[in-house]
Design a protein that fits this description.
Elements (H helix, E strand, L loop, with lengths): L3 H37 L1 H4 L33 E3 L6 E3 L10 H18 L1
Length: 119
């Protein structure tokens, strides 16, 4: 028995890629629709993140505060997530493998708890 690609030849492959393009367009539309909901819904919007690394400060002194107190979501193009704690930061601020402020706080809290319970 031959596979679908073998049966239809090039025509079948073209049909597959045409359908894949339609699917991609559909998924992009749905993704934009869901992002719009998240940004417009009070409950969903409240689950957004602030970048804890730059904290909205103008670190380079160029007067550009465009990132100041921007609510970030994991699906944003300019956002990066920590693999360990899933915290969200600006891509410009966060480097994978670098110290994550959320993970650092958690480790410090665990160490403090161990020290207090051991004393």
């Amino acid at each position: 028995m031959r596979s679908g690609f073998e049966r239809g030849g090039v025509h079948h492959c073209n049909n597959f890629f045409t359908r894949a393009g339609v699917l991609r367009k559909y998924l992009e539309e749905k993704s934009a629709e869901m992002a719009g909901h998240v940004r417009g819904c009070v409950l969903c919007f409240a689950k957004g993140f602030f970048c804890e690394i730059c904290d909205g400060e103008d670190e380079d002194g160029d007067g550009d505060d465009s990132m100041k107190k921007t609510v970030l979501f994991p699906f944003d193009d300019d956002a990066a997530s920590c693999d360990e704690c899933e915290g969200v930061f600006h891509k410009e601020c966060f480097r994978p493998g670098a110290d994550c402020p959320r993970c650092s706080r958690k480790k410090k809290r665990i160490q403090n708890t161990k020290q207090q319970s051991g004393s």
